[in-house]
Each structure stands twice: as structure tokens, then as C-alpha cells.
Write a structure and sequence with these properties.
With 228 residues, the protein is of the alpha+beta class. Helices cover 42% and strands 17% of the residues. The chain contains eight helices and seven strands. The longest helix is centred in the last third of the chain and has 21 residues.
Amino acid sequence: MSVAGSSLFARYAWPPNERGYCGPADSSLVDIGSRAPSFDGAWSYLEYLASVAGLDDPLDVRVVEAYWVGNELLAAASSVDLVAFLEHRFRGQIGGTWRSASARAVPHHSFQVFEVYPWAGILAKTGHPQALSVLQECRIRTGTVLSVAGESATVSSAPLVWDGAALSIGPPREEPVRWSALSSQPRPGDLVSLHWDWICDTVTPAQAARIAAREAPYLSSAAATSGK
């Protein structure tokens, strides 16, 4: 398994694992990359991406980047084939709109958040603030580092906004986050990717644009695909 890909996976997968939401319960930050196959959801996408790209290693750094950030490997994926693949892997998964996602099905984390998980549908049907909070924290988003103090930082990042009918991106706000010992210390002015309350990586403007572009279709379709 790729060392670079394993490290990149760990930086993105650790925040929800720390909270007990996915992956093995007895993981630590330093071993999470080596235990990637235990993350049933993410690992399924990595295996699918590696397969369509003709790569032997699901932790190839290009595969890992494709799932969390987005890159050219996503272009080789078939939405129909992906849904069929997930139907086999996620056959016990209830809720969500992924089985009828059609062309929206992409092996990217945004699809998992907005279509496989049930929270977008719950938000559209109930308006419950917890659903919006989970979507906000679970999505991969970007922000600009304002200050750093020890293992904590303050970033400016644009949150999800729900107006009762649709999701959109609101104006930037300051939020406290942590940063991983697996990555270099962030500096004020850095553009970073965020998952839950962690800085995952320093990203380029092009990578930030890909993250936003991959999320956009699910924001516009969230209410419609929920059956509201």
C-alpha cells in the first residue's frame, strides 16, 4: 500500500473515526491509514476507483485524492456501474437517495454525505438543525487559516445554509479547528481542507475548486431527491 496514500487517507478519515462514526473503534491517528480496509464505506469507493482506473492499490494517492478531493480519475467512473457496485456493498444500508441517484452517482465523498447518508432527506422533510449540523461537519470543505495556536487554529470557512427549501453556501465565518500531526503545521493564509473540526491538508486553489464543484450538484438536488 502507498505510504503517501495511506497518510492522506488517515488525515481525512481520522475526524469521524475519532467520534466513533466509521472505521475500527480501537484506532489511533498513527495507525488509521494501515486500517483503511476497515472503513467499509470509504474503502468501497477506493476499491471501485482503483478498479476503473486500472490500479492495483486502493490507497494509491491518486485514488485517495479522487475520493476526498476529486481529480481526473472520477471521469472514468460510470454512475450506473457505481450504483450497482454499491448495491452489492451497501445492501444493508437504509435511507438516502443513492439507489435512484442516476447521473449524480460519483465515487466522491460528497455523494456519500448527501445521497447515501439519510441526513439530507431528514433535513428536507423536518428541517431539524441536527441534520444540517451533521451535513456541515461531515462534508469536506475548505477554509483559510487566520491564526494558529499550538495544535489548534482558527479558520474562515463558508458553511452550509438551509432556508427551509434548499441548501446553499453561506458567507464565510470564523471557526475553531485542530490540525493533524500527520500534516505540516498550518500557517496563517494557508488554504486548507476541513473535515469535522480538523484541518486535513493544505490544498491548492484548483483542489479547493474541485471540492466545491463536486459538492454543488448535491446542494441543488437535496430537497428534490428527498421526496419533499
